[in-house]
Design brief:
Structural class: alpha/beta
Number of strands: 5
Largest sheet: 5 strands, parallel
Strand order of the largest sheet: 2-1-3-4-5
Helix content: 55-70%
Radius of gyration: 32 Å
Shape: rod-shaped
Number of domains: 2
Strand content: 5-15%
Distance between the termini: 37 Å
Length: about 240
């Protein structure tokens, strides 16, 4: 089940917040929207969000707002009323996506936000894939160690089985308690041999499955990126045509 994205909207302009929320809710996939003024900005630092949207704020507060949401760790979109500010804010905050609030800015904004959230999803998949790869590498190292040690283990096990069988051949001369202990050793050695055989078979199958999964994930990721780029380009061309 896909977890909805959390979008934090910071603005001191209620009209901006109202228009943005209303336009976003008209879309098919609506993230969880949280609107916050600069007066409550201290709460944004600890809030969990996927995308920060900074709209019109009170004079002198824009720099501190952008610093608080930290575009270096969270994607952020800054919407400015003045076109003259765009280059200045973009130069001061190179990681922040900056746009001008023109007549049809809402459509352009949604395209930009959609792409930013897709990158969030991609980064999350990459992080999970890295964690999985680390876990698999640890398991693979343990498996390789056990496979490498299998030969020595089997040699030792063969020696135990052989000596137990030789002693059991003269079982009639042994005390009943000693004979029972030898039979137990022989039985458990056989069981350990069966376990090692099953482990070898499962380890070989797992290595093959892991190689296939890596290949499938690579193909799926490339296919998903191509579809995302194609859809973004299509919608961008449609938005430009509407201009």
């Amino acid at each position: 089940m896909h977890v909805a994205h959390v979008v934090l909207i910071i603005t001191d302009d209620p009209v901006f917040a109202r228009d943005l929320v209303a336009r976003w809710q008209a879309e098919r996939g609506v993230p969880e929207l949280t609107v916050m003024s600069t007066e409550l900005l201290s709460r944004a630092v600890d809030a969990a969000f996927d995308l920060a949207v900074v709209g019109p704020v009170r004079a002198g507060r824009l720099s501190s707002v952008l610093k608080s949401v930290d575009p270096a760790t969270h994607p952020a979109i800054c919407v400015l009323e003045s076109a003259a500010q765009v280059q200045q804010v973009r130069a001061a905050n190179p990681r922040c996506l900056v746009m001008h609030q023109h007549d049809l800015w809402l459509d352009s904004f949604l395209l930009l936000a959609e792409e930013a959230l897709k990158r969030v999803d991609l980064a999350d998949r990459v992080r999970k894939a890295e964690q999985t790869a680390i876990s698999q590498a640890r398991n693979a190292a343990l498996g390789r160690y056990m496979l490498d040690a299998r030969h020595d283990f089997n040699n030792s096990l063969t020696s135990v089985l052989g000596n137990a069988e030789l002693l059991l051949l003269d079982g009639a001369t042994l005390p009943a308690q000693v004979r029972d202990q030898l039979e137990t050793i022989h039985t458990m050695a056989l069981h350990m041999h069966e376990v090692m055989q099953r482990f070898s078979s499962v380890a070989a199958e797992k290595q093959m499955d892991e190689k296939q999964m890596v290949a499938q994930k690579t193909v799926a990721q490339k296919t998903g990126e191509k579809k995302s780029q194609s859809e973004t380009h299509r919608r961008s061309r449609a938005a430009v045509a509407d201009l």
